Amino acid sequence: MKLYLKRIICGAVALITSFSLFACSSNQPDEKKIAMDMETILTLLFDSVKNGEKEIFKTYFADDALSLSDFEEGCDYVFSQYRGDLLEIDCHLPMGMITHFVPGERIHCAFTTFDIITSENEYVVFIDFYTQYSKYPEGSNKIKGFKLLTKQMIDDGEGFTDCSLRNGIYYPDWPLPEVN
Questions:
Q1: φ, ψ for residue 120 (rounded to 5)?
Q2: What is the DSSP letter of 121?
Q3: CA triplet 128, 94, 18: central angle to 5 degrees?
Q4: Whole-angstrom distance, CA of residue 17 vs CA of residue 179
Q5: Cα separation, 36 vs 60, whole angstroms
Q6: Confidence bin at 23 (pLDDT 50/70/90)
Q7: What is the mean pLDDT of residues 147-171?
Q8: Mean pLDDT, the chain, integer
Q9: Average pLDDT in the 162-171 region?
Q10: d(CA 123, CA 117)
Q11: What phi and psi, each to the nearest 5 degrees, are found at residue 179?
Q12: What is the pTM of this model?
């Protein structure tokens, strides 16, 4: 009888442990799926740039970015910098993940960089985007921050340290907020 009771207890502990592990892991965002979704979105976004379709390009951005007074300057910069046919997109993992709490909901955001190779140039793009926000359909991953640099600009010392300071699209005269 004691052996039977030990087996039941061990089985119950194993079952509870596996349920706990599954429950914890199911609440975590799937970074690889998010990266694949963003690669698809970036492919469509850069296709719109290549085809000169500024209104389609804008559909990939969150209201936070679209409402900025200098959003058009950022668009113009991307449309003037990006050249060639898209050959490859590669996401840098791990992504940074942030959760904001507002009354009644959690807003999940991610940020990372992607290497972009075209037939004419190589770029690195930093993006900060929503992965879950009730304002947008699930999986839309609306972009709130975007900075496109050529590899040459990075080699010359330009970087991404200013990207988390504001929303919008980077352009050379991009004003940064004052930090106290």
A1: -120, -20
A2: -
A3: 115
A4: 46
A5: 15
A6: very low
A7: 87
A8: 84
A9: 83
A10: 6
A11: -105, 125
A12: 0.79
Residues in the chain: 180
**Phi, psi (degrees; rounded to nearest 5) at 152:** -65, -40
Amino acid residing at 61: F
> Stretch 108-130: mean pLDDT, rounded?
94
Peptide bond into 177 cis (omega under 30): no
The letter for the amino acid at 41 is I
Two structure tokens written together for 58: 């804008």
SS3 content of the chain, % helix, strand, coil (to 5): 40, 25, 30
Q: Phi, psi (5° rounding) for residue 79?
A: -65, -30
Q: Please state, as a whole number, how many other Cβ atoms lie within 10 Å of the Cβ of residue 70.
A: 14
**What is the residue-wise DSSP string for 8-33?**
HHHHHHHHHHHHHHHHHHHTS--HHH
Side chain identity at residue 62, one-letter code: A
What is the sign, positive or negative, of the torsion defined by CA atoms of 158, 159, 160, 162? negative
CB 71 within 8 A of CB 169: yes
C-alpha closest to that of 76 among 174, 178, 177: 174
In 3-state terms, what secondary structure has residue 59? coil
What pLDDT sits at residue 178? Answer: 66
